[in-house]
Amino acid sequence: MPIPEDVTGDEIDKDVRQELQSLPKTLAEDVARNLVMVARLLDEDPEGAYGYSRVALRLASRVAAVREAAGFAAYANQKYGEALAEFRAAKRMTGNIDLWPVMADCERGLGRPEKALDMAGAPEVHKLDKAGQVEMRLVAAGARRDMGQLDAAIVTLQSPELAANSVQPWTARLRYAYADALLAAGRESEAREWFAKAVEADRDGSTDASDRLAELDGVEFVDAMAEDEVGEAQAPAPSEASMDKDEDDKDGDQDDRD
């Protein structure tokens, strides 16, 4: 797959670069450039990211960072079985537990919420940092909802991190998930409160909390361009009578000139 000339491979994280030092220099550069493309496209063009991840995987399947990148690319394309296999491979290679929450979410994607809940209660969770533990809580709550256990999902999300006033990278998503679970349980006034709190914490627009809040408040957004197009499409065509009148006027003008 083509790679833009401005992508050198030097853009990758230093830890990944260090992993690639086990490869021949030219090969390491090729793999690095493909990994950069995976990172660039993952959010906006997941299919493209997946394509580059497959190239990197073909070139260096024994590098943990490559397996991890392939896992995230597959995950972004909802290829959960493939993603889980890649994450497991990366974990075996490094012993790193950071991928545990996303591995559990892959189990959800495969229709196995019970397995995700088992992973949420495993000893590995205690080895996660705070961000990882919050992510695991979100996955566990999602698994509860998958199983129709709305009240249990709400309880799962109730935590010191949810109640904290300080804003952390996970705060907006945690508040949003809590608001969404409340709304699904029919607790609309509480849901509105927490969507508002999610908006306060969502400094980079990572959720659509503001839209959900507006929806609860009965605010409707109108696409001005679409409205103009509809107005033009619905503009009445001139009636036959008016067209006849225009013709008569033209004929009268012609007679006057004659």
From TrEMBL:
Q: Which Gene3D superfamilies match?
A: Tetratricopeptide repeat domain (1.25.40.10)
Q: Which InterPro entries match?
A: TPR-like_helical_dom_sf
Q: Where is this region: Disordered?
A: 224-258
Compositionally biased intervals (Acidic residues): 245-258
Question: Which top-level group of life is the source organism from?
Answer: Bacteria
Task: Please give the name of this protein.
Answer: Tetratricopeptide repeat protein
